[in-house]
Amino acid sequence: MGSRWLSKVRGMNESGVSPNPSPAVVPVVIAAVLDVVFVVAFAAMGRVEHGGEIALFALWQAVWPFLLRLGMSWAAARVWRAPAAPLRSGLVLWVGTVTIGMITRVLFTEGGAAIPFVLVAAGVLGVTLIGWRLIAVLIRRIRSRSGTVE
Predict the structure, then answer these.
(1) What's the per-residue H, E or C state across 9-61?
(2) CA 102, chain centre distance (Å)
(3) Using CA atoms in the order 42, 36, 140, 120, what is the torsion angle rounded to 10 degrees?
(4) Tens digit of pLDDT for each residue in 80-96?
């Protein structure tokens, strides 16, 4: 009886599955996927720009410090609470991913952290991790003014 009641409170059926995905869950998944895609794209562009191969292992070697720190920043900042917030989430993810990602890169890989690389990484990751969130806020405001808020 207790689990049945709890399932109904959570909006799930008796098998523990939600018949309709919660609107709050989908943006979290989309936000996480976008963040990962942008970090991987940054690493792939860097490999191409410097004549490196984009083979999976080579790309992994370049991207793992940043993905690790992105994930840790997601957890530390509890980004799932406001995944599209430019400052509360985007700024924290950007700072964490760039700074701690660079430190991890220097300490645990053969990659360096030359000033131009740090500046490019900070710029690209700032534009992407904060930028898509700013666009989402803008779209939401436009929709709310026109009365088509989801």
Answers:
(1) HHCCCCCCCCCCCCCCHHHHHHHHHHHHHHHHHHHHHHHHHCCCCCCHHHHHH
(2) 17
(3) -20
(4) 999 999 999 999 999 99
